[in-house]
Amino acid sequence: MWHGGLDSDGWHCVAPYRKKSLSGNEILVVWRPAGIRHDCGLGAACCLISIKARANTGAIMDWEENVRLALFADIHANRQAFSACLDFARARGAERIVCLGDIVGYGADPEWAVDTVMDLVNDGAIAVIGNHDQAIGTPSETMNAAAQIAIEWTRGRLSLAQRRFLAELPLTLREDDRLYVHSEASQPSQWRYVRDTPHAARSLEATDAHVTFCGHIHRPALYSMSSAAKMTSFIPTTDVPVQLLGGRRWLAVLGSVGQPRDGDPAASFAMLDTASREITYCRVPYDVETAADRIRANGLPRWLADRLLDGR
Ligand SMILES: [Fe+2]
């Protein structure tokens, strides 16, 4: 439900691409105007912001722009990996950031990871919650022992403001014809993995979005469904753009920034050109040794460090 309209009815002129989360159930949405006159004196550089209510399980945002998105999932408090990915994405012209959950957990730099995502969100990025983010405020009984230890350690490192930021992230977020969610979309609060085509079909049947983006499994994959519900799937090749054709609906499963599990230790993320509808999966080598050393130095389970080195 929209609140407001043009300036006199509640629109506000602000700097381009700026978005701020509000307390309670409201989100500010940046909307680049298309031929709309407004009176802030900034001319073409100005954007409009509107406010809409947010449901408990998600939020809906409308964007009227063609941009290059950089999409990151499963950062897992890996500062070295996320820094390298952000630099890589910006060098490739990323204009806006989407974070698909699991900002924390496993890695040794949760304060930096949350602060970085908070700053990105304040500058217009989008973020949804992951199961590790949720476990900071609501302990999970389904995580393995190493993950539980890391969550307990992470909880003690984060400030109240950082924990509140994680807790208030939406489970899903719809933007234009795209749905963002951490796990399988039919019941996002159940944190199901998309492991194969039947799981992907269930996720796609739960939405009418043209493209759903998720993470959670830490291995990249692309699924699509035809109008006759026929499924296809493949592992995307790094740096080879794939056009998400309009005649099908797509589920783009991202690899992990901070803890890849597909045998390649390089950080994984994807970029989407919303004009051409091309998605490109990217891999970014980073300083894995330092990330692993920091896990060991902070007394976290050594297995969490060792698995970074071979991407398993
Ligand atoms: Fe994860």
Structure commentary:
The protein is α/β, with parallel strands linked by helices and 312 residues long. The chain has helices at residues 79-91, 110-122, 131-137, 145-157, 160-167, 197-205, 288-297, 302-310, and strands spanning 2-3, 12-14, 26-31, 47-53, 58-61, 68-72, 96-99, 126-127, 172-175, 178-181, 211-214, 221-225, 231-234, 242-243, 249-253, 267-273, 278-284. The strands form 3 sheets. It has a 7-stranded mixed β-sheet with strand order 5-9-10-11-15-12-13, with helices on one face. A 6-stranded mixed β-sheet has the order 8-7-6-16-17-14. It is globular. Fe (ii) ion binds next to loops.
Primary descriptors:
Purple Acid Phosphatase, chain A, domain 2, 8 helices, seven-stranded mixed β-sheet, 2 domains, alpha/beta, six-stranded mixed β-sheet, binds fe (ii) ion, 312 residues
Number of continuous helical runs: 8
Low-confidence runs: 1-64
Provide the number of structural domains: 2
Q: What radius of gyration results from the CA coordinates?
A: 19 Å
Distance between the termini: 44 Å
Question: Can you say what the CATH homologous superfamily of the largest domain is?
Answer: Metallo-dependent phosphatases
How would you classify the helix and strand content by structural class? Answer: alpha/beta
Distinct small molecules: fe (ii) ion
The share of residues in extended strands comes to 15-25%
Helix proportion range: 25-40%
The CATH topology of the largest domain is given as: Purple Acid Phosphatase, chain A, domain 2
How many individual β-strands?
17
- Could you say what the CATH architecture of the largest domain is? 4-Layer Sandwich
Globally, the shape reads globular
